[in-house]
Recover the amino acids of this structure.
């Protein structure tokens, strides 16, 4: 029944070959529900500054048939895991997906097992290829660690460089500390200042 409206709105082309129903997402003691009013939308989470890939990993962390407890700690843990995976993958181009990751996904979409295997991979090319099967590690590592807001951060880095050039070290330190409080790490080098999110 659900497929028919989707086909009509896409010119008769099937939207999907398979439909799966996931377990409930709960918010503490109760399931997430419009009638209760305890829902949070993806749009709201993105507006709060969470990245889509973090939300995807959070949702994939539980087996799709099981309930998922949606908490801020789940989102924070997902961000930490992605940071670690991006560091491990580095700038590697995708290679061949790992056979054990493929086997986990082929076993009734066992994403927790696939994620556990991803964390154990030591070949960056295989890690990136395997992660991309489930929509993870889709960006270059440096872009991941910089995130959004590049123009503002770059403007502050330029202002800091100008402050250092005029020997206003108090202002340069203030800018560095402001960025640090936002989780942005500056790295001064011979080629200038680069930055990343911690």
């Amino acid at each position: 029944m659900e497929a028919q409206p989707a086909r009509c709105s896409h010119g008769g082309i099937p939207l999907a070959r398979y439909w799966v129903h996931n377990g409930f997402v709960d918010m503490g003691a109760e399931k997430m529900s419009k009638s209760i009013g305890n829902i949070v939308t993806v749009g709201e989470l993105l507006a709060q500054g969470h990245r889509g890939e973090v939300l995807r990993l959070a949702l994939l962390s539980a087996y799709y048939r099981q309930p998922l407890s949606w908490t801020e700690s789940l989102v924070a843990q997902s961000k930490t895991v992605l940071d670690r995976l991006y560091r491990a993958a580095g700038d590697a181009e995708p290679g061949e997906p790992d056979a054990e990751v493929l086997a986990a996904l082929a076993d009734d979409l066992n994403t927790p097992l696939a994620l556990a295997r991803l964390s154990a991979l030591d070949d960056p090319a295989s890690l990136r290829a395997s992660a991309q099967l489930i929509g993870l590690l889709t960006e270059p590592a440096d872009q991941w660690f910089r995130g959004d807001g590049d123009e503002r951060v770059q403007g502050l880095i330029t202002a800091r460089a100008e402050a250092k050039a005029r020997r206003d070290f108090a202002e340069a330190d203030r800018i560095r500390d402001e960025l640090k409080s936002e989780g942005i790490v500056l790295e001064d080098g011979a080629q200038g200042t680069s930055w990343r999110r911690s």
User: Anything to note?
Assistant: The two ends are 47 Å apart (CA to CA). The beta strands are 25-27, 30-31, 68-69, 184-189, 192-197.
